[in-house]
Amino acid sequence: MMMLSAIILAAGESKRFDGNKLLYELDGKPLFSYLLDTIRMIPFDQMIVVSRFDAIKAYSLQHQMVYLHNGYPERGQSYSIHLGVRHADDDHHFMFFTADTPYISRSTIMALIQIAQQAPDAIICPSYQGELYSPTIFSRKFLPELLDIRGDRGGKGIIRRYMDRVILYEVESQKELMDIDYRSHLPTK
């Protein structure tokens, strides 16, 4: 049975948003909580939240998630990835989420996990009309490559390098995979 750690990247600087997007109130709840509420409904072997914000720390600990503090957000997304994979249990694969994706559904996450269980050496990505999105599952075999990522980058370089080992799961709605980078990405009232 494949063991899987959910690693939630929630330490970004929100430079394009003009304010802290993860703490932004969306319909009465902080943006980050939508994803974490969805993840809590899934039986991950381990849930790791990498952040630097007190509200996210409090939420994570209240819901029995492992909280890792990223005191160096200027090092980019790669630093959060390194913290997460180094803390994950030794035999676990990794499912990476960005905390600014409030619309991802439990059913899509479960479908990605099912695919990974059938192809444990692959990289599993959701896609919409051929474009790759997060969350992404990496086999533990990609740990050296994940630790080689530098700067404000995620795993897309690894995905491009190993396209022959990537399995795509096409979703019906692009909105489900959207991340909120700008205020214009927020729903209009």
Automatic annotation (TrEMBL):
Pfam family membership, one: NTP_transf_3
Single GO MF annotation: nucleotidyltransferase activity
Domain MobA-like NTP transferase: 6-165
TM annotation in the entry: none
Lineage: superkingdom: Bacteria
Name used for this protein in its record: Nucleotidyltransferase family protein
Native source organism of the sequence: Entomospira entomophila
